[in-house]
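Question (not urgent): is this output format expected?
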Amino acid sequence: MADNAVQFELVSPEKLLFSEEVEMVVVPGAEGDFGVLPGHTPVISTVRPGVIHIFEGGSVKSRIFVAGGFAEVTSERCTVLAEEAVPVDDIDRAQVEQELQNATEDISDAGDNAAERALAEQRADTARAKLASLDSQVYQ
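Got this back:
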């Protein structure tokens, strides 16, 4: 591995989605975004719904939306285990807007059922984060 690169792997429940040496990766951690460069201090973090930014040549090479999960960082590697992952360019705005509308209706329909309400709120939060990823060009 090159001294100026970090191995980045993105894994979904179905398969390995990405595995390459990269200059830097920025992960949407639960406490805020964090950048991973070679030599990073080891850390484990939960991942909130948001965008992973993969850098090469000083600029963003790829943007991948993740719906949550976990990240493990070592001095040489960053591995993200994502609940759901999709390239930002592949997100269909109309479909996500419909998902948000459905989740919002499900929140209203849940009534006193706390479990149903929590699941619907989680789906709504993920849909809002997807829409935000389409509208925000952070690091661009």
